[in-house]
Amino acid sequence: MNVDEILKRLIVGIGLLFVVVGVALIAVPDPFPFGAEVIFAAGVAALLAAALTVRGRLQGEITETVMPDPERPADNQRPGDEVDRMLYEMTELRQGVAENSEHLEERMDRLGVAIVQDREDCSVAEARTVLESGDWTDDPDAAAFFQGERTEADEAGFTGLVQGGDDGGFETEFRAAVEALLDYGEIEVDPIETEEPPSRFERIFGRSGDDDADAGVETNWNEADSSIPDFDTNGPLEDVSLHHTNRWLGVTAFGLFAVGVGVVTFSPALMMAGTVGIAYTIYGRVSAVPRVESLAVERELEADDPQPGDEVAVTVTVRNEGDSILPDLRLVDAVPDAFVVTDGVPRLHTALRPGSSATFSYVARVERGEYRWPVVCVSRDFSGGAERTSLLTPETELTCVPSLKVTNDVPVRAQTTQYSGDVNTQKGGSGLEFHSVRDYLPGDPMNRINWKQVARTGDLATIDFRQERAATVTLLFDTRQRAYVASEPGKPHAVDSAVHAASDVFGALFDQGNLVGIAAFDTVPCWYDAGAGSEHREHARMLFAQHPALSPRPPDRQDTEGGYIDPMTHVLRRLSSNSQIFLFTPLADDYAMEVASRLDSKGHLVTVLSPDVTNDQTVGQRLTRAERTARVRNLRQRGIRVIDWNPDDKLRLQIDRAKARWA
To answer: Distance between CA 379 and CA 335 in Å, rounded?
Structure first.
């Protein structure tokens, strides 16, 4: 038992004592055999207890359960947030000036070289010469950023930053250089809105407490916003905590003070007034908190078999099946953090008499996986002085597995395997499209004999058609932390968009007769060999829904000893030499581009499908959009196919445009 608990019990005991004393003084003129000195000492003790109670109230806090906030979607990192964070640290916090400026200069140098090379078709050295000359832009600040010597304004800016003054140069030149490169590279962006967000600090740091730019995704809202440490439960009912809220500590201090003053001044009326406050405190301490074993919870889902991204209406009903009233119930449906509440409120505050019930409803956008989640229940007595926190888990489960529906034909390139399919080869044989006519060989099918030539010349000849063979295709996902980025809070991040698109691509390739496999590169290995057949298809559906590497939430990082391990290591070890690659990546950094280039250099036919989740309303967002555009152009210049699509649009429309461009 700790000191605080002993003190609280001592205060309750003193309060009980003085309630008796107050009643005795009012009922009997001289109820005690001892003198006034003892009564005066008791009054001083009451005042001391009141002071200790006030001290405890000021140093402590009301310990009510902090309920989760499922209405707020998980705040995924946005492309460019790390750049805005660096600028904020440099200009507002006066921190990391040298390190951040060096990092930003390196990124701008790579971007500037890439854009000049794309436009001027020149070498890296020639591109740097163009940048340093300043002839590529009319903005002197933008030109100064890439020139070898710092301007006086820039030097003053660094000095001011280090000494705590205003930024006079670096940020100005940096912003100007970003805008000039966007213009020079003909990269489309919208104007930045003139209305600034209410707080720059909130925009950069209020979204996540993690200063690690590579963290990618904020911890889930359950752990971040709630005092309940864990929402995993195996049973229908689990008691999490039972504790006093300290709500009546202030009333206790007042009561003890009034009693103490009343005793010291021999004022029965003041003592009785103090005993009222103490009586409330005693009630709050000794009253039992209603248990919730008798509370039945049912959850009803509008859809039995939803698809990833569907909106599902959820109705939760609670019923008091016990014999006693539940005077204060606070309920929150702990919606899985992969879901996004789009309508309604998944919470309820009510009281339930025996046999009564209450209902609340909301709509959530669901994601792939199997889910069974609890309802957080906080039950209090009438006084609110104590509360019991429990997890009530209904039997309802939600399973969300992609259907692998076929929305459009997906183009694959000529490649020969032992399976027939939809890919045309340069070899003659059985098929549909005419290839050539050759001399008849014993055993040739009768339906392939060229009877017109037999009638004309009398010589037997056989018609060969262009053979069709199945392609071996691997759907490869970039599931690193850097890939879990979204354009705005509440919108699907790039991995979700990629998996949604890939489930349709898998269905299309599979129905075309190709052998399709699945892989992902990150610290969590994911590999599913290319194959065919209904069993292979069903296993792929479940992998899309359940594999941790393709989770709607990023898997936990695995600590590795011995330094850096290339995320592509396990993929390259198992990838067959004749497999085509459909690479799903937001191209959030140069590594994703290097993966595509490396696979292409090894002889694989690579098609990159890249969801564009960039935005353009901050300088960091505009920089990352320019970097991503440069990567797309670089891959296309190398002959690698890239389907660049906005997740808000239908992928099949972009595939149709790409097929027309590749024809």
So the answer is: 20
